[in-house]
Amino acid sequence: MIFAQLREDIACVFDRDPAARNTFEVVTTYPGVHAILHYRIAHWLWLRGLKWLARVLSTFSRWLTGIEIHPGATIGRRFFIDHGMGVVIGETAEIGDDCTLYHSVTLGGTSWKKGKRHPTLGQGVVVGAGAKVLGPITIGSGARVGSNAVVTKDVPEGVTVVGIPGRIIRKPTSKEESDRREMAAKIGFDAYGLADEMPDPIARSIHNLMDHMGAVDKKIDSMCRALNNLGDHSCNEALPQLEEETFVSLHEKIQREARSEEQ
Length: 263
Prior knowledge:
The structure is a single chain. This protein is α/β, with parallel strands linked by helices. The protein has helices at 2-11, 13-16, 23-29, 31-47, 51-65, 175-187, 201-229, 244-262; strands at 68-69, 74-75, 80-81, 88-89, 94-95, 100-101, 106-108, 120-121, 126-127, 132-134, 138-139, 144-145, 150-151, 160-162, 167-170. It has a six-stranded mixed beta sheet with strand order 3-6-9-12-14-15. Strand 14 and strand 15 form a beta hairpin. The longest helix is centred in the last third of the chain and has 29 residues, at 201-229. The N and C termini lie far apart (56 Å). The model has no long low-confidence stretch (mean pLDDT 80).
């Protein structure tokens, strides 16, 4: 069972990190994978009453990876920690399947009392870099927590939360928003749990570009289907992969220039 989960944990890296080139590289150089490997073993020991040994292994893992996962936490399948340094996951935290955390995320408690004191994350939750999710709260499936947000209250399914304290800025997606999310995922732009509706004119401009790209994609698909019907299959060739780092670095550059102009 442990090894089956580990295989899934390794395989999911290729879906969420375009920098991953092969399994050997992921297994040997990704601290997030090392941390989840140690956690799976430590959790197995924890459940069998070998709690001191489990804590020793988790302490070694923290020293090796910079990621602290308590062996008592419950973590689902296909869990991915990208970069990972500074991530803290508390003892009573519960994480559903297909969740992603970025560096410096804390799933922490707000009380010294025993019992449930850490967050519960539903399936497919993304928590952006530096975010703090605190207390025995529930983050609904498909929700996204923006970078550096501080969340201390329950979050419904499929929404985006940003700010300090965390506030919901996007309701569950409409058809138009769903198309935009798909385009963002395609180009790798939303990698850090950034919100689609932040009050940022640059972000809105980029969203408009994504809407236009989506419309162009649909027209090209329609043209390709027509060409296929006429016997021309040249449209079946795969397009080159877009590099996520290009879009993230471009967005950061635009934001820096905007801030310098304001100053």
